[in-house]
Amino acid sequence: MKYIAKEGIGFIIVSLSVSFVSFILYFYIGDKILKYVFLSLSLIFLIFFIFNIYFFRDPERKTTLKEDEILCPADGRVIFMQRVFDDRFLNREAVKISIFMSLFNVHVNRVPINGKVEKIIYNKGRFFSANLDKASLENEFNGIILNSNISGGRIAKIAFVQIAGLVARRIVCTIREGDEIAAGERFGLIKYGSRLDLYLPLDFKSYARINDRVFSGKTVLGRLL
């Protein structure tokens, strides 16, 4: 399925299969109560099947980036943009941008800038609602630290962090430490609602604002000066 994330294929097949089998049993079961039970199951899993196709959609995205620009890694809404001290990934002051992904956003994540993966930090945490500030600190997360060669022979170190939410309980990351990755490349997803945080150098100039709706692999968040 070209426009469906491969991580969702299992959910789609299972929900369709259960719906189909329940519908067949509805016709073969004589007991009236069981007939309505199987009919209800068939309808519920049919709805789940349709929702999974929608949720795991993976549209093609292409954007031409200018030098040192940062591509948005997730679909959703910008809920936080501020200078902070990051003591978990970069160990210094950074510009933090948080993007909240609702159940209705595309959940495939994309690389924000070309570079080499220095380190991946996974933490099995809790599951607060992803739009809360404490979700960044206490929820399950998968953080990728990336070194990028930018203009002037400089190396910019950034971090982008997949964070599970209240419903999302499964983070998928397909890249590994030492990988060379390119801006716009798919690197994973978070199932059923989530959040993604970016930690950028202080010389980052933002094009985006709080509450902006942004799109992975399409929206340019800003550039490194």
Automatic annotation (TrEMBL):
It is a peripheral membrane protein. The chain crosses the membrane at residues 9-30, 36-56. GO terms for biological process: phosphatidylethanolamine biosynthetic process. The active site is at 194 (schiff-base intermediate with substrate). Keywords: Cell membrane, Decarboxylase, Lipid biosynthesis, Lipid metabolism, Lyase, Membrane, Phospholipid biosynthesis, Phospholipid metabolism, Pyruvate, Transmembrane, Transmembrane helix, Zymogen. One of its GO terms (molecular function) is phosphatidylserine decarboxylase activity. It catalyses: a 1,2-diacyl-sn-glycero-3-phospho-L-serine + H(+) = a 1,2-diacyl-sn-glycero-3-phosphoethanolamine + CO2. It is an enzyme of class 4 (lyase). Binds 1 pyruvoyl group covalently per subunit. Pathway: Phospholipid metabolism; phosphatidylethanolamine biosynthesis; phosphatidylethanolamine from CDP-diacylglycerol: step 2/2. Pfam families: PS_Dcarbxylase. Its main location: membrane. Is synthesized initially as an inactive proenzyme. Formation of the active enzyme involves a self-maturation process in which the active site pyruvoyl group is generated from an internal serine residue via an autocatalytic post-translational modification. Two non-identical subunits are generated from the proenzyme in this reaction, and the pyruvate is formed at the N-terminus of the alpha chain, which is derived from the carboxyl end of the proenzyme. GO terms for cellular component: plasma membrane. Signal peptide: none annotated. Catalyzes the formation of phosphatidylethanolamine (PtdEtn) from phosphatidylserine (PtdSer). PANTHER family: ARCHAETIDYLSERINE DECARBOXYLASE PROENZYME-RELATED. This is Phosphatidylserine decarboxylase proenzyme.
